[in-house]
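Holo prediction. Input below; ligand is sulfopyruvate.
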Amino acid sequence: MERLEKLLDKEQFEKIRAIDNPELHEFLADWIEWLEPDKVFVCTDSPEDEAYVRWKALYYGEEKLLETPNHTVHYDSYYDQARDKANTKLLVPGGKEIPFLNTKDRDEGLREIRELMRGIMKGKELFVCFFVLGPRNSVFTIPAVQLTDSAYVAHSEFILYRKGYEEFKRLGRGARFFRFVHSAGELDERKTSKNLDKRRIYIDLVGETVYSVNTQYGGNTIGLKKLAFRLTIQRAVREGWLSEHMFLMRVNGPNGRKTYFTGAYPSMCGKTSTAMISWENIVGDDLTFIMPFNGVARGANVEKGVFGIIQGVNPEDDPIIWQVLHSPVEIIFSNVLVKDGKPYWNEMGMEIPEEGENHSGKWWKGKKDKEGNEIPPSHKNARFTVSLEHFPNVDMDALEAPCGVEIGGMIFGGRDKDTWPPVREAFDWKHGVVTMGASLESETTAATLGKEGVRAFNPMAILDFMSVPLGEYIENYLRFGEKLRKAPKIFAVNYFLRDENGNWLNHKLDKAVWLKWMELRVHGDVDAIETPIGYIPKYEDLARLFREVLNKGYSRKDYEKQFTVRVPELLAKIERIERIYREQVREVPEELFEVLEEEKKRLLEARTKYGDYISPFVLERK
Ligand code: SPV
Ligand code: MN
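Structure of the complex:
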């Protein structure tokens, strides 16, 4: 306390003193001494403190005002546009190697990051912010403290998370809180991080603390988002619940029935657009906590806002996002093109100016980067940050429910051109967890640095964030289902199926039909066709739903192409997945191999009877 009293001015000190938590005090004193900021501001939950942060983002030039009131733009360095997987490391004692996880010796990592951060805030202002993950004062609540010298990061967190200062006061010494320490490091004239060669994101799983330095991109810096996610996965596996890379949404069934679904998709594979279907209701678009209560699974959104991809948002396909982005509510646009105070982005369905400012600085059509690549108007991973309360389709009651909502179905989806049908249902929890969740593969996208379009193993769409050995994670999933009297139904979707000539087999909005079908299946309202890989919809049900939902015809031919069981591709996939689990993952539950074996057997039997490509009509008649 005495140390803090020396480090803070009276007003700020009083704010910290009101929280009775010596562990927090010591953490703050240690880091403020180490970072050496010129100034410290402590954010309480007051609107004035939030406004101060918002103003500071403008004052320090990390954000600029746009024409529409409450809209700002922020830029990250041209080479700091996505999550940096290579430099994001899990600090574990002894640097134990864990397959698929990027680990580093804890002592060495802590030493390195501390050295990088020593005195890094000289001349800067440090913001100390308090938030919570999950709804406040609920079983889901996890308090977190964020230290950052980026007003943009703090501002983003005010939009995306529930305020937590009062929660820290309420919990006092009982708070089991996460800690995040971030510095954007030295900034260039555009106020973007300069020393990208020293960009590091180190996750200390022992101290439940994450350090992030020399970066600004949200996925690397916003503590409560993907940084906290590594910590919550660890807690969930230890405590027997699920912390998932999933949206949470309400699908509206017949007669006002409300059914909640979660959905796990790798970044840029349709997760946000599914959760945003305008006649359904969104609860969350990225992270969900799922806990067992009285034999049912209940879910809550970890966040209260959206850090969404803006590329491709257009008035026709995304009417709600479009409307929100064009209303005067608080929004941070990042890495978009700006001309005369207006934001523009790739594929927005209208003409874009041929010059302006974007993530590369002054921009003109045809401009090339150092590598000789033409720079598009906005970055592929350009984003918007906005609170969910501004969405007309938000389910506010579900968002704030302290006990979450009962989950009827869980969806897994990837970017897969030739293997999975557009939608199918698992036989049971175990079958779904193994053949859909744990077997998820997807082509890589621009959401991370690196090559795009490569098929990659991505179980539960969570691999980028995995913080425990994969075998343990899957074991926890399997056991979770056993705690439930009524487990959610598990489904898999694939919006990216193509024919042999590479043409898409589905339209963007077809997913709205799959959702309605899944809703009916959760309640047993329609029959389905049993295939070797699970249940698929009957043509008549889909034809009716296409008519009702999209007012569209749906031909038997389209259905047949989309739902043909592609045995060679499915068998090849099982081979790939089995090999990964046998050769690269340790301590895999034996059940995983059993379930894959059974699926393989069913496929081989079907092939003997019906051939390599099996029409759904053939399976229906059998
Ligand atoms: C994702 O890439 O999955 C996102 C954005 O949701 S980020 O914050 O970068 O993780
Ligand atoms: Mn995500």
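The chain has a mean pLDDT of 97. That is the main takeaway for now.
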